[in-house]
Amino acid sequence: MFGALAFEKVGRYLALLGKKLDIDKEKGIIKVHEKVDNEETVVEIRFTRNWVITYVKLGSIKELPNDTKIKVLEKLLLLNRNYAEVCFGIDEEYNVYCEEDTLVDALTLDVFLEEYNAVLIAFELWEKEIMPIIKKS
Amino acid sequence: MSLPTDRLYQRIKFYLSLLKKKIIYEDEKKFIITVEERVNNEPLVVTVLYLPPVWIHIRAKLIDGSEMEKLGGSRYIIYRELLKLSFRSAEFKFAMDDQFNIYITEDIHIAALTFDVFEEEYNAIPAAYKTFHETIYPDMKALAESEKIDLT
User: What is the pTM of this model?
Assistant: First the structure.
C-alpha cells in the first residue's frame, strides 16, 4: 500500500502552492502541470511506504546515434556532480528522467519543495545543456 | 531560525559517532569528515562535507578516472548502467567529475537533517558500492578483458 498520509500531505502542499493538479487516489499518483521557460511539462509524484518519489520524464535518447548517446550520458553524470539537488537516471528504454526521493520521515513542506524544485531545475538543464547536444546530432 | 554552521557540523559528527563510524580525518574549518567503511572486506573511504548554507554532501569514489579512460569509447556502457541503476534504486546517485572519476553521492538539505535521514542517506553509499560491484563491475571487467585492457 502506498503512503496514504504522505499522499494527503503532498496534495495539501501542492494545493497551498497553487499548482494545477491531477490526482489519482486509486493509484496514488499526483500529476502536476508545470510551465518552465514557456515549455510545458508534467511532474509526477508516486508514493511508497517509505518514499515520496518526484520525477519528470525528460525525453528519450534511444534513437540517437551512439556517439551522441555517449555525450548525453556523460553530460548527465557531470550535471549530477555539479548540481547537488539534481539526480538524472535512465530506464531500460533509454528514457531520461530526473527523480528525487524524499524519505517519508523527512517530509515537510520545505524539504518537499526543495526536491520538487530540483526536478524543475533538471528540466531547465535538459533544455539548456542536453538538447543542444541532441540537436547537433 | 537556522543553526550556526559549527553546530550543524557537530551534529553530523554526533550522528557518525552514534553510528560507530571510524573517522580517519577531519577538518573542522572546512567542515570535512572522512570515514573508513568496509564493504565486502574492502576499504571504502566516505567523505562527509557540510557545504554552507544548505547542503550536506556525502560521497565515495567508485571508479578512478584513469580506469574509465582506459575503457575508451566502451565506457559509455558503464555510464548507461550507472544511470539505469540510479533510476531503479531510490537514493542511489552517481556522478562524474571532469577527470572522469565516478562517485556515489548523496545530498541532504539541512532542513531535512535528522538522524533517521542522515543514516538512510549515509547507508546508501556502501549499499550503492556493493550493488555496483555485484552487478556492474563484472561487466566492466569482462569488457576490459575483451578489449585487452588491464584494469587495476
Answer: 0.90
